[in-house]
Design the sequence.
């Protein structure tokens, strides 16, 4: 079922209305679909933004960058809350353009298919217990950069399947060029031949190790082990993970710099991690045209 069908089903539910809005960033128009009062699991108070705990693991503190960062009316949430087979879908993402929407919907469709397949694996055992297969998908977002020339969005993803050992979390990143109405692919952002895993693997491993150790209150360290020694040891293990990891392509842009977003173990809650590369250090790796869009020539 494509995104347009998701829209049609949503419009058939009580409490849904459609509001046409003009989003003036460049010159494009978007359609904003909002859920009416009482809709959704938390009614009108449901938040479209990423959970603070999720964001803490990606980057402890961050600010939205870009010339339009202080004008929240430039982007507004679009909701899809529908039931797709055995999967409850609860998705929020910012209104940017039809091409932006299409990319997000493609990711949602893929995630729903995976959840349906996973639910089928547990169907027999659930029926023996008198239960039916169910699954859920939730997507929220955080806007890291907002300008008429560039938008960068982090999509925080959570899923669960009845009968599975645990829920899981993941993250998607979409960088978008409003004036060209198309995504900015990661390969277009960096100079030819630049390899983030070579330039940032050690730094990222230490950032992630330090954050995880402090979250766990040193539970992964020895009783008398110094924190820095523990960080070095744990970082060595993370370097091994990041050396072979393929997700260096998820690069979120914020006011403070680039954030590489990793999901090393996407089938477990809390395993999405991030690593910040400050603009001063990251600037030489960016293509000149990208630096100009960011106002950092």
Sequence:
């Amino acid at each position: 079922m494509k995104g347009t069908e998701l829209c049609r089903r949503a419009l058939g539910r009580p409490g849904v209305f459609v509001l046409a809005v003009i989003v003036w960033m460049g010159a494009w128009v978007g359609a904003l679909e909002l859920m009416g009062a009482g809709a959704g699991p938390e009614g009108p108070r449901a938040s479209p933004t990423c959970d603070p705990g999720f964001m803490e693991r990606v980057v402890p503190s961050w600010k939205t960058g870009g010339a339009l960062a202080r004008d929240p009316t430039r982007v507004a949430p679009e909701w899809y809350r529908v039931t797709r087979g055995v999967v409850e879908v609860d998705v929020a993402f910012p209104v940017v353009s039809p091409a932006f929407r299409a990319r997000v919907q493609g990711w949602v469709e893929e995630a729903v298919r995976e959840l349906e397949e996973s639910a089928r694996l547990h169907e027999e055992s659930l029926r023996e217990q008198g239960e039916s297969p169910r699954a859920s998908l939730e997507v929220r977002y955080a806007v890291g950069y907002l300008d008429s020339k560039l938008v960068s969005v982090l999509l925080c993803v959570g899923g669960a399947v009845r009968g599975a050992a645990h829920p899981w979390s993941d993250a998607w990143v979409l960088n978008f060029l409003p004036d060209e109405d198309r995504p900015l692919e990661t390969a277009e952002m960096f100079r030819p031949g630049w390899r983030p895993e070579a330039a940032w693997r050690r730094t990222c491993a230490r950032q992630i190790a330090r954050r995880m150790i402090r979250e766990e209150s040193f539970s992964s360290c020895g009783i008398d082990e110094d924190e820095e020694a523990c960080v070095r040891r744990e970082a060595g293990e993370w370097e091994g993970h990041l050396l072979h990891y393929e997700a260096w392509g998820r690069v979120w842009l914020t006011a403070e710099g680039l954030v590489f977003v990793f999901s090393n173990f996407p089938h477990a809650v809390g395993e999405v991690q991030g690593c910040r590369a400050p603009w001063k250090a990251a600037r030489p790796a960016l293509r000149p045209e990208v630096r100009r869009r960011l106002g950092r020539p």
About this structure: The domain at 3-185 is CATH 3.30.565.40 (Heat Shock Protein 90). The longest strand covers residues 135-146. The CA atoms of residues 79 and 92 lie 5 Å apart. The longest helix spans residues 98-121.
